[in-house]
Amino acid sequence: MAIIEPAIRPPAEADSFLLQVTLGCSADSCTFCGAYKNKPFSVKDLSEIKSDINSYARRYPDTRRAFLMDGDALVLANSKLVPILEQLSKAFPLLRRVSSYANGCNLTNKDNFELEELYRNKLNLIYLGLESGSQNILDRCQKSSKVEEMVEAVGRAAKAGIKSSVIVLLGLGGRKYSKEHVRGTIKALNKMQPRYLSFLSLMLIEGTPLAKEVERGEFEQLSSEELLKESHQIISGLKLEKTVFHSNHASNYLALKGVFPKDKDKLLSSLKLALRGQTPLRPDFLRGL
Fold it and tell me: First CA to last CA across the chain, in angstroms?
């Protein structure tokens, strides 16, 4: 059951059973992402997936969490996905949670019954990269999912019982579109009301279209101070009712965590201290993806 690298998963899934269902990403168009550039999208054979499950179960029968890789297992029709979830429940009696990355378009292509079917089979958490709430910025980055599509996806998933962990990419608008990035992201997140929210900071990946834009002088990256200001501005505008927030990813200059709405002022205060130079930032050589 050797995993075909690279194996990319959220930090919260470090202790989960990583089950490779698809290879690569079905969209693979984002100009800032180089994660799967050398791994063409394909779907693994069901017999191989079940073999991987059974092999892992023999060694770790008490597994409680599983994460479906690679970029978007939910591109699969329920007719293919549900048997995988059923096999997971059969192999792991203590299984409590199955999670996956998700593209907005893959979720909105499923009807409410199909989403509820996934939840009944223990798929109860999705990780969705909003990146930016500005459609202009997403179009410039060639992201396949639209803002309103992702807002709808999170809302419909929530109605089915599936929680969403939404990811925002600070600095994605560059210096030119920073204000637009902030405004649109606030608007989208307030509509989504995600259960979990995380901020990452843009880091260039060599060879990607965005890196080439920077080389040509067509995209200006934000400084550490400007990234902190974007974070402060977005958080200032958020009206979230029950959201767990983290910005502890290795790409960020400042690690933050809290729960909205009760910790909003604390988060803003921490950012103000950092902007005043009163809190040390993560040095560039320790930042990573």
Answer: 25
Q: In the structure, how many helices (H) and strands (E) does the chain have?
A: 10, 10
Query: What is the set of domains in the chain, with CATH numbers?
Result: 11-280 (3.20.20.70)
In Å, how far are 58, 196, 256, 263 from 279, measured between CA atoms?
Answer: 48, 25, 12, 18
Task: Tell me which residue of 57, 58, 48, 59 sits closest to 22, measured CA to CA.
Answer: 48
Helix (H, G, I), strand (E, B) or coil at 274: helix
Q: Are strands 243-246 and 257-260 parallel, antiparallel or unpaired?
A: antiparallel
CA dist 284 to 31, 192, 229, Å?
22, 32, 18
The pLDDT tens digits for 213-227 are 999 999 999 999 999
Q: What is the pLDDT of residues 105-148, one digit of tens each?
A: 999 999 999 999 999 999 999 999 999 999 999 999 999 899 99
